[in-house]
Structures are given as structure tokens and as C-alpha cells.
Amino acid sequence: MATLTNLNTATPAMDGVSHLEDPAVMDSALYQDAGCTYARFNGLRLGSYFQPIFSLAHQRVVGFEALMRATDPEGRPRGPHEVFDGTRGHTDTVVLDRLCRAIHLYNFARQDTGSAWLFLNINPRVIAEGRRPGSFLQARLEQLELPPQRVVIEVVEAALTDETLLVDAVRRYRDLGCLIAIDDFGAGHSNFDRICRLRPDIVKLDRSIVAQAAVDPGIRSIVPGMVSLLHESGSLVVMEGIETEYEAMVAMDADADFVQGYYFARPMPQAAVVSEPRFDALFDRFRDMTLQERTGYRTEIAPYLNSLGYASVLLQSSHPLEIACKGFLELARAERCFLLDGEGRQIGANVNSPHSRLESDPCFTPLRDADGANWSRRHYFRRAISRPEKVQVTRPYLSAATATPCITISIAFKIRGERRVLCGDLRWDEGYGSN
To answer: d(Cα 269, Cα 100) in Å, to the nearest integer?
Structure first.
């Protein structure tokens, strides 16, 4: 490898991306200092930092994300976005992108990292618009004798006018043997459409998701569903940006496969873990938290379960629906009660509580008349039918009546030999513990 003796030397002039396929041209911008590889680009010094990525199940590090760190001649730091935003045209961007990958590969390869993955960030515009995608990486991997299956190509968030170019480029990296990851999912342009197109091996959820889920029970309740959808699409999931113990609990509750963030380990010049996280203690606290939440949940819904069960007894004693459900509808979270036949069709109108949103909000006028509606596909109906005479309760879901989160309590029974299912909806937009 060539060594630069003048650290203020700028990146050599390059009039086309193809020049970078010549290792000598790239090496002229690289140098070593104290055993690490650095690069010079437009007067900046570029170096590598590595942040560990941990598997929750294996309770150990399984990979490292390579991060570029830049400083100016006075030693002042420059953020990655600032450096990339300062590039002059597409060729300049490709030069910078490949310099970053080169120093990361050299610095990673010189360390004893076992079988851990190396996550390499690549801007979609670079891999989609560059010539012969993957050729630069392949040459470096062969030079360093680094197996391609240890490299995860991390496609960062960016808009493209033609996604087919990105799909073709990703295919080339996959054919090389690399894994594919999508970064910042849930923010910007990383969405399910890109998931369907690229079929990534790994998806990294944007930091904003875990941050919001940690303070908003409504958001937290939908994150497991998001992770489940990604799993069903064939992707492992990384929850990144975890900075607190509670955010780690959110990731565990959501069934994320991997975690990354300051809570577990900060980026360092070495691809290593200075202090191993105490996963056993973390799992113990998670068990205690979920037990406490289940206990609180059961305590909160117990009056509703009892009230609806009693209402079913009153209905079997020929009481009108409004009278039978009066006690249930007086409870703080109660929204409405309704009765279904044995086929799941609603008998009569909803009986709403005085504080029901459906009753008070004129926006939901089209939904007020539910007489004859078919709810047979709903879980609360199917569960009640499969377990007659036992009160059932659903997980939180979006109510078709008010477009807000709710849970439904239901019980199946018979009136004069005819099967009936009594249902009661509870407002659940803030989870248990608040009204």
C-alpha cells in the first residue's frame, strides 16, 4: 500500500469513476498512521470507527458497522453528512464513497474479529449509478482475503428516480456473496416498497421508531407488528440507536433480532467490545417488566371482564341489551357493546357509552349504524365461538368504528337455544394505566 508523506495532499484529480478501478489511483489517497489506514479527501482526513451490533438471543456481538470520521487540517471534526454534502458532483461522491469503503475494509481486515460481519454503508445513488457495481468491492476483498459473506452492504436512505438501477446493483452485490441490509427503515425513502424490491437479508429500524416507542405506548404497541411483517418478508431486524435500558426493553418486546446503540457500545477505532453488556441481567429485568405489565393489564381489565360476563347472564334472563350492559358501559374505558348471532352478524345497533367517541364525534356518523354488519372474521368472534361461556379478550387493534386503538372483550352463550356472542369495546389508545 502506498503511503502519503504529505498529509495535506488533496485527493488526486480524477476525471471519471472508472479511474478508481485502478488500485494505484485509490492507494495514492491512502496512508497508514500508527497501524491504522486513513485517507485524504479535499483536505480532510478520513478514518474508521466501528460500532458493535449484538444478537439478543446469542448475547454477543455478531457484527460491526463501519462509520466514517473526518477531521479538517486543524483537527476539527466534520460530520459524514457534511462531508458528503460538500462533494462536487457524482464522480466526487463516488470517490469519497469508495475511499470510505477502502479504509473500513483495511482497518477491519487487520483486526481479529472472528466471524463477525462488517456493515458497509453505501449511498443508493452510488451503487445504482456507478459503473460495474461491486467490482471495486470485489477487488478489495480479494486483495485482503476477506470472504464476501462477512460483508453486509447497507443501503442508506435516499430517493432514486429509477429504483430498477438499485435493484440491479444489489443483485450484483448479492451474487458476489455479500448480504444486503436496508438502513433507516421507517424514515425517508426506506419503506415496504423498497423491501419488496430488494428483499434484504437485514433491515435496520430507524432510531426515531425506538425513541417514539419508548415514550408513546401507542407506538410501542405497533412496533412488534412491524418487526413481525419484516420477519415474514424474510428479513432479520436490527433495532438501532438504543440509548437507554427501557429502549432495550422495547427492542426485546418487539422481538428484534439484533440491537445497536450507545446503551450497548459506542463506536470506537477498534472493531472490538471493551465491556460486554450484561445480557443475563437485562433479560431478568425484561422478565420483571413484562410480568409487571401483565399484572397491571389484568388488574385493569378485570372489572370489564366481570361486567361483560354478568351482562351475558342478564341477557340470558331476557334483559334488554341496554339494561344488561349498563354496568359495563359505566366503566371509564368502555366504548360500546353489541350483540352478534352465531354467524357473526350484528343484531341491532351498538349500545354506546355516554363518553363514546363514536357517539360524540360527527366525523364517524357513517359508522354509527352497524345493524347487520358481519364481524365473523374478527378474532373476538372466532375466539368466543371456540370457547363458549368463557370471556375472551383481544390484543389491541384498530377499531373500524372510530379508527382508534381498542381491545374487545367477548363471550359466547345461548339464548333459547340460539348461539349469541356479546362484545364490548374498550378504548386503548394510551394502553393500560391511564384513562
So the answer is: 14
